[in-house]
Amino acid sequence: MKWLLATCVAVSLLFATCNDGPLPSKSIESITIFAVTTEGQEKVATVDDQNLLAELARSINHSRREPLKFQAKYALEINYKDDVRRVLVTDRYINISGLTYSMEEDLEAKLRLIVDSAKR
After folding, report:
1. Where are the domains positioned within the chain?
2. E strands, the chain, where?
3. Which of 106, 99, 97, 18 is CA-nearest to residue 56?
4. CA–CA dist 96, 45 (Å, integer)
5. CA angle 64, 69, 73 (to 5 degrees)
6. How far apart are CA 25 and CA 8, in angstroms?
7. For position 25, what pLDDT does the model report?
8. Percent of the chain clearing pLDDT 70 (strictly above)
């Protein structure tokens, strides 16, 4: 019985640590931020600071699925060594690969701060 309990705990810990959320956060090299307008997209900032990349990935990965459509205000290009992922952002919502997620924090406000500091 103890063996079964220990196995269940080990498996659940494995799944908890392997669950990376909707966006793989390991090995992100940079994030390019685009402002989305009715005219198109304009590159407004690039993030390559590892602490800020980890913070943004953590924010995105603490989101939960939400059946919602929205008009994006920012588009993120998540750059990996061998891959690029796109994330659309508005207020507390993100869209990754056609799936919408709600977030506990306002990612758009955080991106605005990054963009404002990049303009200086």
Report:
1. 23-119
2. 28-37, 40-47, 64-65, 74-80, 84-90, 93-96, 99-102
3. 106
4. 20
5. 90
6. 26
7. 72
8. 83
Q: Span 85-95, mean pLDDT?
A: 94
23-119 CATH fold: Dna Ligase; domain 1 (3.30.1490)
Q: 50 burial class (0-12, 13-18, 19+ CB within 10 angstroms)?
A: exposed
Whether the predicted pLDDT of 112 surpasses 80: yes
Residue 14 reports pLDDT greater than 90: no
What is the torsional sign of CA 100, 87, 20, 83?
A: positive
**What SS3 state is found at 96?**
strand
**65-70: which pairs have CB atoms within 8 A and are 24 or more residues apart?**
65/99, 65/100, 65/101, 66/93, 66/100, 66/101, 66/102, 67/100, 68/93, 68/100, 68/102, 69/100, 70/95, 70/100
pLDDT tens across 22-74, in order? 777 778 999 999 999 989 999 999 999 999 999 999 999 999 998 888 899 99
